[in-house]
Amino acid sequence: MQVLRKKAADMGVILDGAQLRAFQIYAEMLVLWNKRMNLTAVTRPDQIITKHFLDSLSLLRFLPKNRFCKLLDAGTGAGFPGAPLAIAAPFFEVTLMDSLNKRLTFLNELIKTLSLKNAVTVHSRLEDAGRTEEYRERYEAVVSRAVARMSVLAEYCLPFAAAGGYFYAMKGPAGREEAVGAEGIIRALGGRIESVEDILLFDGMSDENIRHTVVIIKKTGKTPVRYPRRYVERKKL
Question: Residues 3-22: what's their mean pLDDT?
Fold first, then answer.
C-alpha cells in the first residue's frame, strides 16, 4: 500500500490511511472472491495496484476537483474504475452498473465491508437502463473501462450523460484511431470529442510502461430517443 500511496501522489492523488486500508481490503477481497468466480485475470498484488487501482485513479486528473459529482461507471465489472474513484473521492456519488449479478454480489459485499456511503450498484444492461427516465441523462460524468469498440461504447454510455456533462472512455493505445472512427455516431448521439489523453503507468514487476488513452467526450445536446439501440437491433445492421 505504500507503493500505491507514492504512485498515487505522483499523479496528484493524496490517499490517507483509511483510504489505503480500504484499498488493501479491496485487493484482498478481489483475490479471495476470484477463487469462486471469474472477476479478473489480474491477481498479483503489484498488478492489482498498477492495472486496477492506479489505472482507475488516473481519471481523477480529468474529473471535477473536490466537489460533488454524480458519476456512473458503465459496465463496471469488478468495480473498475468506479469503486476506486468512490474510495479516493468521497464527495462523488458513484453508481456501479453491470449486467452480471454475480459481479454486483461481490461489489455489494465490498461496499458493505468498506462502509462506502457514496457508492450503489445497479443490475441492468446498459442499453436497457439508458432508455429509462431514472438513469437517462442524469449524470455529470460517465466512465467506462469496457472492451467494446468506441462506436458501440459511445452509444451505450452517452445517453446517460446530462447535457454539459462528459463521457470518459478508457481505451488501449489505439484509442485515438477508435475515436476518429466513431466521430460520426458520437455527433449523432449529441456528443463531441473534446480530447484524447495519454496515460502512462509503470509496471515495476516487468519494468514496462503501460500505455492507455482516455477519450474525453462532451455531451453537447440531448441524445435522440432511438438511442441506445438494443442488441438485437444492432445485430441486424
Answer: 95
